[in-house]
Design a protein that fits this description.
By secondary structure, this protein is α+β, with helices and mostly antiparallel strands. The chain has one domain (2-139). The protein contains five helices and five strands; from the N terminus they run αβββαααββα. It has helices spanning 2-9, 29-40, 44-57, 65-98, 127-139; strands at 15-16, 19-22, 25-28, 101-107, 119-125. Strand 2 (19-22) and strand 3 form a beta hairpin. Helix 2 packs across helix 4 and helix 3 packs across helix 4 (65-98). The longest helix is centred in the middle third of the chain and has 34 residues, at 65-98.
């Protein structure tokens, strides 16, 4: 699924990232994939348990139930998006090991010792892999 999402965003040179435009906003590639993966997650019982944990961890919620639920929903969505982005990163490492893509970073201080030094992930897909994915789309 991650490879299909990357192929969907791949532009010139089979490159996806560092940002993906979604309406008015531009999301970093990892966050965009995490967002897409979170939309597919349909585990209601697990999500309810997460919501209960987050509700218990929030210091104080407003008395207005609708406003309180909005705050909890936003916190749950952020947690699920973050988890999806972490899972996508692990998958991309495996895809790189298999030779389906190469990763590099763009942004400020690309040689910075802190891996998160304001750099954003860019994936370059293997030409054969992206051709196979596109050919598969035509067959469906």
């Amino acid at each position: 699924m991650v490879l299909m999402l990357l192929a969907e965003q791949a532009g010139a040179g089979n490159q996806a990232g560092p940002f993906v435009r979604e309406g008015e906003r531009a999301l970093p590639l990892r966050e965009w994939i995490g967002d897409r993966l979170s939309r597919m997650s349909g585990r209601d019982t697990r999500r309810r348990r997460l919501e209960a944990r987050i509700r218990a961890s929030l210091p104080e919620l407003p008395d207005d139930l609708i406003e309180a639920q909005k705050i909890v929903d936003e916190a749950v969505a952020e947690h699920v998006r973050s988890t999806g982005a972490d899972n996508a990163s692990r998958v991309m490492v495996e895809l790189e090991r298999c030779g389906y893509l190469k990763r590099h970073y763009q942004g400020y201080r690309t040689d910075h010792t802190n891996r998160g030094g304001l750099r954003h992930l860019v994936c370059v897909l293997d030409g054969d892999a992206i051709a196979a994915l596109r050919r598969r789309d035509r067959l469906v």
